[in-house]
Design a protein that fits this description.
The complex is a heterotrimer. Chain B is α+β, with helices and mostly antiparallel strands. Chain B has 17 helices and 18 strands. Chain C has nine helices and 16 strands. In chain C, strands 13-10-12-11-15-16-14 form a seven-stranded antiparallel beta sheet. Chain C is globular, with a radius of gyration of 20 Å. Classes of the chains: A alpha/beta, B alpha+beta, C alpha+beta.
């Protein structure tokens, strides 16, 4: 079966194995089938050696968290993320992965009113204890009402997305307050850009993702304002539109996208001179979301932004190994996902921090499910700013 | 191409699962396909069921089951070997040590740590850091390779110039032999009694037994370190500098050399700040007490300048030092920035003959119309010419092999060795007769047979076919490689 | 592959292919591992340096060469080997006994010094193990196997031995009442000996580093170090202990008599012999298998057995 992968990208792997310790599933299982090098060899076997697509081979692909930690570690610069997305697209097209119910659920993310209504129902069900939150990896508490998003100017877009907006709107509001404190007028994207498509591309739904990308680009066209993103997964997806669609327009769009921390890091001086603050008395461990560290390479901005606002920022000692959330991964591969998470929570425990800062909603929900106090970095900044204001 | 489960495997797999648990055995085509290969370009491996033991008892049980079914056993660590040593031949039961990865004990009084074989080399060193000690051998693959694999290959690394290879750092090793008995070779005393079986075992490429626990020596972190980058616009000047440093009685912790093509390839990934216009760079590290380090550093800089060094740069801090090393250690993988395939050699030559050997290598490679990247442990004369090519180009494989053969013969003619740290595996097996006489090989085969009289451990490696008759018996049990499915 | 020279071939002919045979070196460790069976023919290994390449830091030397003579030659180039110097002791003897120099902390053990070995097999043929380079992993490691084998697996004719630079400054000092652990932590300490009371240290390295270590050791609480000619008289028997046991040797080893412990190494020199060490039956069987494979008729150094080394 031809997977439609670029042959030059596929043969770029020289099997050196330097990716192995950076792959969360290999670290847990110790099995080559669950390693980047192994997965690439299997892709090659299928595409170039006519090896049949067995159930075991599909498992090998499905167990990948798509954290792309292997890309950072790869001296040959193998674009593993693209290879895995391409493989999943081919497998999904052939009906071998991503069952119908999952496709249906993902479709729902594009329809904002459906998502909001569904989330409210879910929140209600959780309050009534009708849903086993822990087993499903859902937050123990979800908002019943969401304070409205309001534009405060038009310097930048704040990308609000789908699930995060429904479940963690408080974070968007905090981010908006921090940006405003830096003197920036913020317009939330809201219905103009319903969903970035990250979960869809991970599930192999390539053509659907392209449709969504076009929708988002259309909604935010008309000017070249920066598009700030406070969810690492969404930011990575938006920054990849250039590659996904391959058009000049898409590349220009992707160039406008910034992770909010990376953008704010350049304007810290402005923020601090306007609002001298007393740092919060708390030790914060920074968890680097994979899509910030390995995909966007922008993770250094988080401790930089956080440092002036809390007494102590500590790095985790696990080389940025994935936490196992992986979007829908924590639901689809719950067992592996939890095993990977245990390594992360152990690293947090070693760090001695009482609060974990995570710049990605998926990671944050996944880690909070263990009882950790997980906040968005800018929620902490917002808290420091507001307590100084009083 | 890809391994086919033979009919007899169902019973074997069932017995393995009964012995160590179903979650520790994989026999599907994908798992076997991947267990059939390592980081070398050898692709004829053919794995049987793959086991992931968690303890010595599990290993014993697997060896027993394999023997009962007339199957050999091949151990596997991270599969980062470059000579096909971990590529199983004849569908043996593959024992992957990746789940035996514990650091069992740190014994500072005796300067030793007890570890399981699957622990990753760098993870061990990191775990030791709070104690002010480290594990000295540091192969380029140290971020991924396992101590068990290091023991099997007697692995080296840049810092082996001053500290010695794996053999000098393994004090004792618990081994499961081919008859499933467990023995501990060596101990923590100064001079263990009997033959040095631990020394004989290290570097035996999995053919003498399976290491299940290893006592490794802990090396105190040096009080001072100086890392220098010496740049030259002539490869010969760089090589002559290496010889001159050694001749001056300085034994640096490491002397590494990279030529221009290699520098260009790694710089793209590591951004170590190597000058891409230099014909060759030397990465030299001296360590020890602060005063001596300063003196040695100055002397080395003088020697380099006397050999027309373009620049002499000293790493200002740990960060810069780490970046300089990252570039060096990612060199093999970074070759893909130049060509999709590479064939890596690992010959050793007397270090006083580096200049002429390098000249000859460039000549050979030019003649075969190939690209070569040179990156190597210059201090001990351990060359790693990387022949970069694209196997999709017709005739490329043949040219690469022809040039490789000439390079190996060149090294041997200079009084060198076939391999300095990667091992013989299957890749260099047939060259052994070029380096050793029939008597020498007979003696080596006696060493192996003393450990494993029936040649059931990782058969078919190291010794050329004429000297491993019983291996052929073990290999005959195998089915021909079939189609996946 | 190299042709063996005439000297080696003559030695091989002397060893022959049958009848019990042994090589007599300096006889300094003649009784190690048991007494030779009566009627064993004695031969002598050839002597002389074949090639010394200072820039290579290796020396090719014949087994019958005296270690002291070898070191005299190497000293001219500022080098030496890890082989111990004993009056009359030969290179081959040092390799076959496998006992390290008292300066092992600085020089390393004998086993790591052997790079290539040419020896006569039990069937009288000449074999070569290892390689002519400072680094090599081509095939099985016959060098490690042969060091310390007491000539029971093969008779060494020639060896390529790693050399090390002699320190710019080298001093033996005596430190009355010093803490051996503290002395051991000195970077230039190439030997730290302790008799339960006093410490002797061999410092070797750059002058600045030796001075630095000496000034550290001459702290206010300690008696000042005094220069001495060399190590103290070593009691005759050699114990092989762990570094931890050696560091606390004074307590619980009353039967050992007077002792001098090598700190950081584990060798202890004592007036009484070390009690026999227990040997795991599996290890004993493996040793037996090696002897049978390498010397099926048991003609090489009959009566000797490395398992009976103390």
């Amino acid at each position: 079966m031809h997977l439609g992968l670029n042959d030059d990208e596929l043969v770029a792997c020289v099997s050196c194995g330097l990716c192995l310790p950076h792959c969360p599933t290999f670290v847990i299982t110790g099995r080559d089938t669950e390693s980047p090098r192994g997965r690439i060899a299997l892709m090659r076997a299928v595409q170039n050696e006519d090896a049949p697509v067995t159930d075991d081979l599909i498992r090998s692909m499905e167990t990948c968290v798509q954290c792309r930690g292997c890309e950072t570690a790869c001296p040959s610069a193998v674009p593993f993320g693209h290879l895995m997305e391409g493989t999943r697209a081919a497998l999904a097209d052939a009906g071998r992965i991503t069952p119908r119910w999952q496709r249906l659920a993902l479709k729902g993310l594009r329809h904002r009113w459906l998502l909001m209504a569904g989330s409210t129902l879910l929140a209600l069900a959780i309050r009534l204890r009708l849903v086993p939150t822990r087993r499903l990896g859902l937050p123990a508490r979800m908002p019943l009402r969401r304070p409205p998003l309001r534009a405060s100017g038009n310097d930048v877009w704040l990308f609000t997305g789908c699930v995060m907006d429904a479940w963690q709107r408080d974070v968007h509001l905090a981010v908006q307050r921090v940006l405003e404190a830096a003197g920036v007028g913020v317009e939330p994207t809201g219905a103009a850009a319903p969903c970035c498509g990250a979960l869809h591309i991970h599930a192999g739904l390539e053509s659907e993702t392209k449709d969504m990308a076009r929708q988002v680009m259309a909604g935010l066209s008309g000017d070249d304002r920066p598009i700030l993103v406070d969810a690492a997964g969404c930011g990575a997806a938006l920054k990849d539109y250039g590659h996904l669609l391959g058009t000049d327009e898409a590349r220009a769009f992707s160039a406008r996208v910034f992770d909010v921390h990376e953008w704010l890091a350049d304007r810290l001086g402005e923020l601090r001179s306007r609002h001298p603050v007393a740092p919060l008395d708390v030790t914060v461990a920074v968890q680097d979301p994979c899509h910030l560290r390995h995909v966007q390479g922008a993770h250094q901005a988080v401790p930089e932004v956080l440092t002036p606002f809390v007494t102590r920022v500590v790095a985790l000692d696990d080389d940025g190994l994935c936490c196992g959330a992986g979007g829908a991964y924590s639901v689809m591969e719950a067992e592996l996902s939890r095993a990977i998470r245990e390594r992360k929570t152990a690293a947090v425990a070693r760090s001695g921090a009482s609060v974990v800062a995570s710049a990605n909603p998926g990671c944050s929900l996944h880690l909070a499910a263990t009882g950790l106090d997980v906040r968005h970095p800018l929620e902490l900044v917002d808290q420091a700013l507001s307590s100084s204001r009083v | 191409m890809t391994p086919q489960a033979s009919a007899g495997d169902a019973a074997l797999v069932a017995d393995l699962e009964a012995a160590i648990g179903a979650d520790r055995v994989r026999a599907d085509a994908a798992a076997r396909y991947l267990a059939s290969r390592d980081a070398s370009i050898y692709r004829e491996g053919n794995a049987g069921p793959v086991c992931y033991p968690g303890s010595t008892a599990d290993v014993v049980a697997c060896v027993q089951v394999a023997t009962r079914h007339g199957r050999a056993v091949s151990p596997r660590g991270a599969g980062t070997g470059l000579a096909g040593g971990a590529a199983p031949l004849g569908q043996p039961v593959v024992l992957s040590t990746t789940r035996m990865d514990k650091l069992l004990e740190i014994d500072l009084d005796n300067g030793v740590a007890w570890v399981q074989p699957g622990i990753v080399n760098l993870d061990l060193t990191r775990a030791l850091a709070p104690h002010g000690v480290h594990y000295a051998p540091d192969p380029s693959s140290q971020a991924a390779c396992t101590i068990g694999g290091n023991v099997a290959n007697n692995s080296g690394g840049p810092h082996c110039l001053a500290y010695g290879v794996t053999s000098a750092h393994v004090l004792a090793v618990e081994v499961v032999l081919s008859d499933a008995s467990v023995v501990t070779l060596g101990d923590l005393t100064a001079e263990p009694t009997g033959y040095d079986l631990r020394g004989a075992f290290v570097g035996s490429e999995g053919m003498c037994g399976i290491a299940t626990t290893v006592a490794v020596r802990l090396t105190p972190n040096p009080p001072a370190v100086r890392t220098m980058l010496l740049c030259f616009d002539d490869v010969s000047d760089a090589a002559a500098t290496v010889s001159a440093i050694i001749a001056a009685g300085i034994v640096p912790a490491a002397i590494e050399m990279m030529d221009q093509r290699c520098v260009t390839a790694v710089e793209r990934f590591a951004q170590a700040g190597y000058p891409e216009d230099a014909a060759a760079v030397l990465l030299v590290e001296v360590d020890g007490a602060a005063g001596g380090v300063a003196i040695a550093g100055e002397r080395i800089a003088d020697i380099a300048r006397r050999h027309q060094a373009m620049s002499v740069r000293t790493a200002a801090d740990d960060d810069e030092r780490a970046r300089l090393w990252k570039g060096r250690k990612s060199a093999f993988g970074a070759v893909a920035n130049v060509m999709p395939d590479y064939y890596l050699h690992d010959t050793v030559v007397p270090r006083t003959r580096l200049v002429e050997v390098l000249d000859s290598i460039y000549e050979i490679v030019d003649r075969h119309d190939l690209l070569v990247l040179n990156v190597f442990h210059a201090g001990d004369g351990n060359l790693h010419p990387i022949l970069a090519y694209d196997s999709r180009v017709p005739g490329a494989d043949e040219r690469v092999h022809a040039a490789g053969r000439e390079i190996i013969e060149l090294a041997l003619d200079m009084g060198g060795a076939l391999t300095g740290e990667h091992g013989i595996g299957v890749e260099k097996r047939e060259y052994m007769s070029r380096m050793f006489s029939a008597v020498d090989l007979d003696q080596q085969s006696r060493l192996r047979a003393s450990f494993d009289p029936h040649c059931r451990m990782n058969p078919g490696k190291v010794l050329p076919s004429a000297h491993s008759c019983s291996d052929i018996g073990a290999l005959r049990a195998s089915d021909a490689a079939g189609v996946w499915g | 592959m190299t042709e063996f020279d005439g000297v080696l071939r003559t030695f091989a002919a002397e060893v022959g292919s049958d009848g019990p045979v042994c090589v007599r070196g300096g006889g300094t460790r003649w009784s190690l591992g048991g007494d030779l069976s009566p009627g064993t023919r004695e031969v002598t290994a050839p002597a002389g340096i074949v090639a010394f390449e200072p820039a290579e830091m290796t020396v090719r030397v014949r087994a019958g060469t005296l270690v002291t003579e070898l070191h005299e030659d190497l000293a001219a180039a500022g080098q030496r080997t890890a082989l111990p110097e004993r009056a009359g002791g030969t290179v081959g003897g040092a390799l076959m006994a496998g006992e390290s120099s008292v300066a092992r902390l600085g020089l390393g053990p004998v086993r790591d010094a052997l790079l290539q070995v040419r020896y006569i097999c039990a069937d009288g043929r000449i074999a070569s193990g290892g390689a002519g380079t400072v680094k090599n992993v081509s095939g099985f490691d016959l060098c490690r196997l042969l060091v310390g084998s007491l000539g029971t697996l093969g008779l060494v004719g020639e060896a390529l031995v790693r050399t090390v630079p002699v320190g710019e400054v080298e001093r033996w000092v005596r430190l009355p009442g010093a803490d051996p652990g503290a002395v051991r932590s000195c970077h230039t300490a190439a030997s730290v000996l302790w008799d339960g009371t006093d410490v002797w240290a061999f410092l070797s390295g750059y002058g600045v580093d030796v001075d630095e270590d000496l000034s550290r050791l001459a702290g206010p609480a300690a008696e000042p170090p005094t220069d001495v000619d060399g190590p103290p008289d070593l009691p005759p028997h050699r114990w092989s202990c762990t570094p931890e046991q050696a560091a606390s040797f004074g307590s619980g080893n009353g039967a050992a008599g007077r002792f001098v412990a090598e700190i950081g190494i584990g060798v202890v020199h004592a007036s009484e012999p070390q009690p026999a060490r227990p040997v795991d039956p599996g290890v004993a069987e493996l040793n037996q298998r090696f002897k049978e494979r390498f010397d099926p008729t048991g003609r090489l150094n009959p009566g000797r057995d490395p398992l009976r080394k103390p």
